[in-house]
UniProtKB/TrEMBL annotation:
It is found in: Membrane. GO terms for molecular function: transmembrane transporter activity. It is a multi-pass membrane protein. This is Major facilitator superfamily domain-containing protein. InterPro entries: MFS (IPR011701), MFS_trans_sf (IPR036259). The chain crosses the membrane at residues 72-89, 146-167, 187-209, 266-290, 302-319, 331-356, 401-424. It comes from the Eukaryota. Its main location: membrane.
Amino acid sequence: MSENTSLTVTLKAHNASQVANLHYLVHVALRARSRQVSALVIYPFIIQFVRDTDVTGGDETKTGNYRVRQESVFFLAACLTVVYFGRLSDRYGRRPVLLLGPVGLSLAMLGFGSSKKIWSLVFFRFIQGAFNGNNDSTSVAEIYSLLPFMWSIGSTLGPFIGGSLANPASRFPDSLGKIHLLREFPYLLPCATAGALALGAFIFGVLGLKETLPSAIARQKKGLLGTEVEPLLSNTSVSAQGDTLIANDVPHFEPSLFALCLTRSVIVFFNYACFLQPTFCFKVMIPLVYATPVELNGLGLSPLHIGRIMGLCGFLNMLPRPSAGRIDSTVILIMIFQMSCSFVVLSIFACTQIFIVDSAPSQKSLGSVNGLAQMVAATLRSIAPSFASSLFSTSVSHHLLGGYFVFFVLCSFSLCAVWASLLLPKKLRH
């Protein structure tokens, strides 16, 4: 009888653990999707959004510069905050940090969509970057294998939502266009949609996400022992269990950020940086080239066309758009093929994240190591927009290598990334 009872308890505990792991996997996947959508939803209409603020006074040559500034501040915010989010997750628990990101991101998206001044765009883009850099670090290979798939979904949904729902007064004059709020704020609808996805991840996390940090779990159990269990147990029993929990909750030594940089993580960080620089430059240039007028060596596409091309780039079945002027079906197919090839990069992100987690000296420093890695990424992201756009402008204006000098530079960065990958450890430690 006792053996059957023990087996039943064991099976229930195993099932509960599986359910908790499933909740965690789904929450991480939803967060990855919402973060990607929030980052990319503005790409199809951001150039027009900047024009609508009238900050450039009609000078198209300045539009790209203002777009670059708000993009740089997005990743600058992530650079300034991501390490501290990692430290907070190591100290206070994974769950509160995981829940903080989506709710903050949803509010920032609403603020961005309801902006009318350039300073407001920059401010809310900064807030987006801060909460978009908010991340947990305890995921393992099984979780990271899901991320490329969710990033692909987010990369498809984000631009498609931004291009299709922007300016509903002209897109849907007989339905959504009749709503005064959407006429007053033409870019609120796509931003609110992205915010709703982030809010959905938050609600799912509140309902099903459990704490995974051992010290935080120990503190929770110790609190339960001190309030509910203590009156029902003898002093000896409480003392024995309390001693066990306190032993698990002894303050541990947390290595400094500088000490972490001196570990094997530095090789992984260097590889990560070499890989990210050309990747971010490429992502920045895509909407810039697409939205720049043809007379300035761009393609002169509208937000709707940009959103559809970027949103459907994984499918290679985009129909030609007659209103694209000089852009014929051949150019459209080449653009889609170019962007669809970039999805190969997503698998490299997952592999690099596994190396980052493996490079941590201990489980207790996972948050800090992941925070440092994300800080490297955010730093490069904040530099890439200005670097890529300036190099593109210089290449075109001075006709360097026929105007294609910028692409030769990006190719050289890619070759450096290949060399850096050879420095990575041959085997994982964990």
